[in-house]
Amino acid sequence: MEPRIQYAKTSDGVKIAYALFGSGPAAIVSLSNIWGNLHMYKNPSGFNPVDELTALGWSILTYDGRGSGSSGRDAIDFSMEARLRDLEAVIEVAAPGRFATLSYLQATPTSIVYSARNVGRVACMALVNPFASGRDFYRLIPAMRLSHETLEMADDEWVFHLMALANALTGYSDAELAARLVTMFQAGMSPRDYVAYQRAAIEIDVADLLPQVRVPTLVILDQAITRVANASLVKGVASTISGARFVETEDGAKVIDEFLRECGLIPSTAAPTPPSGTVIILFADIVDSTAVTERLGDAAFRDKARDLDGALRTIIRDNAGAPIEGKLLGDGVLAVFTSARQAIEAALACGRAGGEGGLPLHLGLHAGDVIREDNNVYGGAVNIASRISGLSAPGEVLVSETVRSLARTSAGVTFEDRGEHALKGVGEPVRVWAVREGA
After folding, report:
1. In this predicted model, which residue has the larger pLDDT, 49 or 207?
2. What is the CATH architecture assignment of 6-262?
3. Is 3.30.70.1230 the CATH number for 277-437?
4. I need a labelling partner for 220 at 20 to 30 A (CA). Which of 198, 243, 358, 415 fits?
């Protein structure tokens, strides 16, 4: 699966590359390691939790941290607050209202801090081979100790330094894997960023925050990647977080899957896939979003819109629809259905949710042929649904004549004729109808 990379900008101006894998309703925010999660995914080295978890039905939102992979390079600040800015920028533009965090190794301190500070956003947290103290991590794990002790040669002897690190990570037993790791490392960071990252990482210490974590937490000692883990550090984290569960395993994905289900999250193993062919198309958009943003302020508007976006997608799935993951509220929520009745029921419920959330919606439905590509749908019918949505009053559902014909005997609603309208980009006028609840 080739990631569809998008960008978010941090509060200090760094562009962070991110991508969403899978189409599950509960996104897992997978925090970036030193080389960047997307970069590691595109340059496989035998460790790939993304494909394992998406195959189990979960969606994963992941990213390259500053200075790594496809994100902004030549970063100066790699402190904990800088790492949090990377994570917050991605969450702000792409995460649902509540989500699980999943992190490995060097990313675990960031997950711990974010979860301690944002209990309302984090449904649960999984930490794989975590540590609380950077000094302990670089002292007790041989490969990490080697990387720090030879850090001064990284600028002048970059490849030699990376080869020494790669051989240590593979236990000096797999020259082919070590060579692949070196290639991945070289492309993942510049020597300058690498040195700055390492110097900042050793100073990070989140031990004081561990007792403040209040979200359900799973701590895993993954035997598949023990050369970059220390059992005492992992168990130390587990024993200090109140109620944390500790598991030692060689199948981290299976354990994480079970934990997320116990947290009340549901994977998309039975979720519908956006179809090609003739479908019912729902388009929803916030009424006068520019004015609402000015009234509420950017941060408050984004929070409300994000929560509503998650609610609408749940409603759509509950009515057997398929939300299009590339569309985010503010640009409009787009979904497709195979049943006109279910599409109308979803649209009415979305309208109620928008009103209750203080963000009334324009809602429009049309039926027509679409082309499916990369979890998105295209075609003239999509444009018509969007134009019909723009004609609706706040909270009102308008449908095309085609949808009314499909649903008038099964939807349990009545339709009020709103006449023909000339729609931008559409050659012929389109007759629209307002949906009224009650037969």
Report:
1. 207
2. 3-Layer(aba) Sandwich (3.40)
3. yes
4. 198
Looking at the chain, the domain(s) classified CATH 3.40.50.1820 span 6-262
pTM of the full predicted structure? 0.63
Other CB atoms within 10 Å distance of the CB of residue 346: 28
Count of CB atoms situated within 10 Å of the CB of 266: 16
CATH 3.30.70.1230 domain extents, the chain: 277-437
What's the pLDDT tens digit per position in 196-246? 999 999 999 999 999 999 999 999 998 777 677 899 999 999 999 999 999
Per-residue pLDDT of 136-146, as tens digits, reads: 999 999 999 99
Output the six-digit token pair for 321. 């629809």
* Cα separation, 406 vs 339, whole angstroms: 9
